[in-house]
Amino acid sequence: MMKPEPSTHPYGVPDVERLLRLPRSTLRALIAAGFVTPARGPRNAYLFSFQDLIVLRTAQALSNAKVPQRRIMRALKLLRARLPDHLPLSQLSLQALADHVVVREGGARWHAESGQYVFSFEGEAAPVAVHTLQSPAMRSADAAIIADTSYAEGIALEEGATDAAERAYRRAIAADPTRLDARINLGHLLHANGRTEEAEATYRDALSACGNEATLLYNLAVLLDDLGRKPEAMRTYEAALREDAQLADGHYNLALLYEELGQPTRALRHMAHYRRLVQGAE
């Protein structure tokens, strides 16, 4: 499993357009207004952090809600200073109350500028000028951002902090249950740490959520093989090879199993497949 270098600014302009559904012209205007100061990458391309994406989404929504730009700038500056590295945005939304920016966390509300809580008294009419800014499209974008960021964090943490890596992979899966790469990495991590029952459950949950996939089936077969469940491992290797006949390690491991279970003809056939694939890759 390759481990890319973690970046504090992993998102380019196409990512912002895709995740936030933000037109490039609007993005340029928000940058020009000073809402964010992106880094520069190859060919001087803009690169944005996770916090930048939160700020861009919020700035656009507050502008649409007719909050004065001066208040938006001040509120976002203070809010950004309070953001953790990976904010669970499903637990936070922003509102425009008159011409103020209000942050809602669960049942609590507080002013983004002052940090003071906003209290609702029994019998008091709800403010008519409150506009919730977290639309279904924004929640979908939040989930994609959290899944991407948490998955990258998990990879970066695997070698030195496996508990934190596990939590990161679980966050990615919670944000996007179809995130197969996070499910595979979590299963592999659990297997490597001797938590075989949890690893098997993780792989089988992934099969239910994402369907058959060669690497997923291969990893499950390796686990079953390690557990001594040889016939089941054999069937799972075969299923992996039906998904991807070019999976060299699958042919190799299956050849060893067939040999161990007294089926030399099948063992030779898979070993021949393995050698052809390895020689072709040289």
From TrEMBL:
Kindly name one Pfam family recorded for this protein.
TPR_19
Regions that span the bilayer: none
**Coiled-coil segments:** none
Species the sequence originates in: Tahibacter amnicola
Q: What is this protein called?
A: Tetratricopeptide repeat protein
SMART domains hit by this protein: TPR (SM00028)
**Gene3D superfamilies in the record:** 1.10.1660.10, Tetratricopeptide repeat domain
- Give the superkingdom in one word: Bacteria
